[in-house]
Amino acid sequence: MDTQAAKSHFPRSQWIPDGVYVVRFRSPLDQSGGVVTVRNGRATGGDSGYYYDGYLEDGPDGPVARMLFVRHRPETISVVGDVSRFRVVFDGRIDGALYLLEGRMDRAPGLKLTAVMTRLPIEIED
C-alpha cells in the first residue's frame, strides 16, 4: 500500500497532535483506563479487556473522535456495561495539557461516557 495514501485515509485533527496518550474513561456505571496512539488522524489502543479503533477530526469547537470498542477478553465488562462491541462519538475540548472528551454510545444514547487523555513524552517516528 502507498504510505502517502494510507496517511490521507483518515482526516487529521488539528486539535489533538500525533502521540501516545493515557486515557481515563468514566461513565455512571464505572471507570477504567487504557492507552491510545494517535497517528495521522487514526486513534488506536486498548486496555486489558477492549481494543479501540477510530479516527479524529476537527469539529467546529474542538476535536471529534469516532471510536469503535471491541472486547477481546470475554470476562471483561466495560465502563458502559456487559457489551462486546460498541461505538462512541466523542466531542472534545482542550484544557491545558488535558484533552477532555464527552460522548454517547450508539446503543445507549442516554449513557454519557467521558474520556480524559494525557499525552506521554514519547515521540512517534514515521
Mean pLDDT: 87
Oligomer: single chain
Distance between the termini: 15 Å
Can you count the helices?
1
Percentage of residues in DSSP E strands: over 45%
List unreliable stretches of 5+ residues.
1-8
What is the CA-based Rg, rounded?
Answer: 14 Å
Estimate the global geometry from the Cα principal axes: globular
Neighbour order of strands in the largest sheet: 1-2-3-4-5-6-7-8
DSSP, total strands: 8
Largest sheet geometry: 8 strands, antiparallel, barrel
Helix content: under 10%
Structural class determined from secondary elements: mainly beta
Order of helices and strands: HEEEEEEEE
Topology:
Layout: H1 3-7, E1 19-26, E2 31-39, E3 42-46, E4 50-58, E5 63-71, E6 85-95, E7 98-105, E8 112-119
Antiparallel strand pairs: 1-2, 1-8, 2-3, 3-4, 4-5, 5-6, 6-7, 7-8
Features:
8 strands; 1 helix; mainly beta
